Amino acid sequence: MRAVNTDLRSPFFQGIIEQDAAGNVMAINPVAENLLRLNQQALTQHTMQSVWGGKLYRSDQKQITKEQHPVFIALHSHMPSSCIAYLYNSEHFQSILITSIPILDPETLMPIKVISTLLDVVALQKTDNVAQIQLHQLEAIERISRINLQAGTFKETLHSSLEALLDIFDCDRAALIYPCDPSAGELTIPMECTRPEWPGAFDLDLNVPIDNDTAVVLQACLDNAGPVRYDALSFHSVPRQIKEEFSVKSQLMLALHPKVDKPWGLVIHHCDKPHVFTNEELWLFDEIGHRLAESLSSLITLRNMKESEERFRTLVENAPEAIFVLDVKSNRIIDANENAALLFGRPRDELIGSNYLTLSPGVQPDGQSSSELACRFVNDTVAGETPVYEWVYQNSRGNHIVCETRLVKLPAAGKELIRGSITDISGRKQTEAQQQKFSMALEQTADAIMITNADGIIEYTNKSFEAITGYSLAEVVGKTPRILKSTGPTQNQPAFYEKLWRTIKSGEVFNDVLINKRKDGSIYYEEKTITPLKSAAGEITHFISTGRDISERMRTQEYLQFLAHHDVLTQLPNRVLFIDRLEHAIINANRNNSMIAVLFADLDRFKFINDTLGHDTGDLVLKMVSGRFISSLRSGDTVSRQGGDEFAILLENIKSTEQITLICEKLLKSVSQSMLINEQELFVSVSIGISVFPGDSLNPQVLIKHADIAMYRAKESGRNNFQYFSPEMSSRAAERLTMETSLRKALERGEFSLYYQPQISLHGNNLIGFEALLRWQHPKKGLISPLQFIPILEETGLIVPVGEWVLESACHQLKQWHEIDHELHLSVNISNRQFNDRNLEEKFHSIIRCSGVNPACLELELTESLLMMNPVKTEQILNSFCDIGIGLSIDDFGTGYSSLSYLRRFPLDTLKIDRSFVRDITTDVNDAALISAIIAMAKSLQLTVIAEGVETHDQLEFLRGLDCEMAQGFLFHKPLPAFDAGRLIK
């Protein structure tokens, strides 16, 4: 606001009055004294109601009240106010335009004074031309003042003001420039308004570099107290670039000086035709500019305050700590962020307004009163301190929370406010307690513990480390773990150590098996886990290594794994490993929505080579064909030998059948090339059958079967070709749906029954028990194979109620048989789906208890894959069965999970050798060696072995020769109904 000026140079005189925030007159110029017929001394004697010595009236002759007076409005709204009022004197009513503008304190934004301008409207109207001009000026000023009085946003107020300028000066473009500073380097256009035919010249809020011409214009504005004109009568001309680019014919520009921030620039353009600015227009532009500057002062201050408040609120809301604001006088929380509500377990609106002292238990852990101690910290904060202390709070559920609290006094007029920041350190306190236990556990654990710094220098080893490696702590401190490095194949690969260091330096845990060397030079396998340790700042400071000597286990496991999953002759995966990979491929294909193909390949007339050239030559042919298969396939594909001259190939990530066709053509061409064996040239060919997932089947065994069928079709088609499997999909789907529908009613209709296959002791040739097998007697189709309906039971979940029925029926049957032979055992299978039932233990215990059967005579058969689905949960369930005497058996041993660690972990009693290994033990050296190893391993682990699928006397004698304890199979008896099985017992 400009100061009161008695040297008026405007086209007409205006009265000016300056008053303080209470309305007391501080200064008045002669024009105002003349208009009001009073001097300053007389004015100071009047109240706000009768300010300036007379009553003011509206145009309807109603008296203007105190609250309607522009001075009152300006002081209370903090914004300019104006009106046309009528003052009564002895002669007539006199009309006066009153405009009151508050002057705000930059820090508190409270009014410190108000300045009012008075114009005699009637006097202005006594002349024609001058009066019209002056009335236009009055209306323009009142219009701008009215816009500034409206409670609009920053942008809205600027836009409305510029729109008014277009109308007031009949110009084509009006804009605000920020900053009006030639040294700023860049400027922006916060707001611009134009006539429709003259579109905007500037992009709003875009940074525009200040060139030399623009800098000259800006400097001219700063150097002039009033507007700078660019027209035919001025000393300045519009810069050529601006004139041409924005079609400027005339320009009027003024520097605005708000009380905060840098100067702004106000500019209007005439673009249609040149315009010569009159003195009245220059004066009016100057007056409007000053009013806009005053408005900008308030708007910028309010905007800055709002942005500051929003930034503060954002910081508080997004702070990781729980933050609250406390009113010291009332001890009540007047604000809190969402983290505070979460910490105390209360809705935010409920937390706000609550008493701060109620958020703590009665006493703190040291026995001191929470309220007394809290008041002491609050008083210290009010006194200017910033206390940081550990405190126990209590949430809405009554749980205690250990926290770190920081109090800070907030600036506030007339109030004492404190901001509190709370960090939950319960986890940290627990960690400190656990560290004590951890240090004790390190010394007492059976694992070898080694701690190194971030560079790998050994700082600590425990006693188990010395027992395993032979090195004492004193011998290894300051050295690196390379002291244990052996010449094993894994450790000689640089990529191994690169992966190790890359893993642990990235903060991840490293797990692997290492081949290390003891102090005495002996080699041992170590199951190693290396875990990075981080500081509070997140930096890795140490590595902790735990190791376990697994040498014996690894030797056995490596041998068994190779025999169980590979063909000895070709080194290819065998059928067990192939099925495992096929199952995983199906899972991945489902996840990735891709295709896989199974190829079943059989060498044409290979028997002729064996019969004429001998088995040694045949073996060499198989090896060479294996190599040609591998070289013709992609790196991710799998080739396996199924037995004899049969191979199965798995193709993953297939995009189309055309891709499969190209691969098969490549295989046929590769195999058919001549081969030189023992200086004799041979030619072989291959027939290939193809099945595709998911089109041909979702089941791995069925996919192999379909590929096998297609292979025989290829042979029937002349050999040395390939054929795709082509089943009738609609009929097969309908048949499966019908079977599923029938299965859903089979249990309640009593269509299920149990058959019992005898289990024979090979030592005494006597019956020792049975395996209970589920059968389904369909009312129309007769006896259905379990291979057909059990997978459907698994998929639909019906296996759970059916499995309970099986166990219940088997237990009641065993109870009856115990009246004849109380030592008779019975094995019952548990499916994977059934094992995952959350109520499994409760149901099984209830069934066994209700049947009255001796649990020691009952054995549950589980698959290897079932055991490893959730080892922790599985171990808990198996231990509960073991506790009541139930025996546990691994069914189809050797066909499932590739690790044998579960044999030591779980409380197992029996291993059942899968029939697929027993079938060829007298003709296949691989199967014979595998069964021999399984039996030897089982005996070393004190496990009983039973072989299933024994069908010939040669198989029986072979198993007896290996000291296998039990067997079952068609050689002894096929599965029997309960009645026939009971006759065997008698």
Automatic annotation (TrEMBL):
GGDEF domain residues: 594-727
InterPro entries xrefs: Biofilm_reg_signaling, EAL_dom, EAL_sf, GAF-like_dom_sf, GGDEF_dom, Nucleotide_cyclase, PAC, PAS
GO biological-process terms attached to the record: regulation of DNA-templated transcription
Residue ranges constituting the EAL domain according to the UniProt record: 736-986
Residue ranges annotated for the PAS domain, each copy included: 308-385, 434-507
Residue ranges constituting the PAC domain according to the UniProt record: 508-562
A Pfam family it matches: GGDEF
SMART domains linked to this entry: EAL, GGDEF, PAC, PAS
Protein name stated in the entry: Diguanylate cyclase/phosphodiesterase (GGDEF & EAL domains) with PAS/PAC sensor(S)
Species the sequence originates in: hydrothermal vent metagenome
Taxonomic placement: unclassified sequences, metagenomes, ecological metagenomes
